[in-house]
């Protein structure tokens, strides 16, 4: 009887480190998440924030998510994960929770966009808020893609 090595089902793909992070799905989504989230923050900050409670939440979610995602990206690039399976769970939980928070922020930003249509600086604020809404929904979609692709990996 031949000796049997580790089964193919138990062999897990290694977590990427270094530049391979940018070539591996779902980890390649981290940089676009950061860039789109930064655009959300910049565009909301450029408006005259007429609804501080709504847009304050949008700015909090976008800035916090950008910073945590940047730390996560740096930890993958520098190889802090040491190929531990716990990092996949952490990554999946973080991106799932952030997707929910970003979806709530995108809906609130869309509401702020609707309300900014009839203000004194109407056209400029409306255009900035519209762009912020677009990038907020795009960023939420990226976080959802990341969370599901980690889950199904």
SSE layout and pairing:
Elements: H1 30-46, H2 52-78, H3 85-116, H4 122-151
Helix pairs in contact: 1-2, 1-4, 2-3, 3-4
Could you tell me the strand content as a percent range? under 5%
Low-confidence stretches: none
Number of strands: 0
Structure annotation, total helices: 4
Question: Which oligomerization state do the chains in this entry correspond to?
Answer: single chain
What do the pLDDT scores average to?
Answer: 83
SS class = mainly alpha
The outline comes out as elongated
How many domains make up the coordinates? 1
Proportion of residues in helical segments: 55-70%
Largest sheet: none
First-residue to last-residue Cα separation: 33 Å
Transmembrane segments: 27-51, 57-80, 92-112, 132-152
Protein name: MALL protein
Subcellular location: Membrane
Membrane topology: Multi-pass membrane protein
List keywords for this structure.
0% strand, mainly alpha, 153 residues
Short description:
The chain has one domain.
Note down, in words, how this protein is organized.
It is built from 4 helices and no strands. It has 153 residues and is mainly alpha-helical. The protein has one domain (28-152). The chain starts with 29 loop residues before the first helix and ends with a helix. The model has no long low-confidence stretch (mean pLDDT 83).
């Amino acid at each position: 009887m031949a000796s049997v090595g580790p089964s193919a089902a138990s062999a897990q793909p290694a977590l990427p480190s270094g530049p391979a992070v940018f070539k591996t799905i779902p980890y390649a989504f981290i940089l676009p998440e950061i860039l789109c989230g930064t655009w959300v923050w910049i565009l909301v900050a450029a408006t005259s924030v007429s609804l501080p409670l709504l847009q304050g939440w949008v700015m909090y979610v976008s800035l916090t998510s950008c910073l945590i995602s940047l730390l996560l990206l740096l930890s993958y690039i520098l190889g802090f994960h040491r190929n531990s399976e716990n990092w996949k769970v952490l990554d999946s939980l973080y991106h799932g929770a952030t997707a929910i928070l970003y979806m709530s922020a995108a809906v609130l930003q869309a509401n702020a966009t609707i309300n900014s249509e009839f203000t004194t600086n109407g056209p400029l604020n409306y255009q900035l808020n519209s762009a912020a809404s677009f990038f907020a929904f795009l960023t939420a979609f990226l976080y959802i893609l990341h969370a599901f692709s980690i889950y199904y990996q």
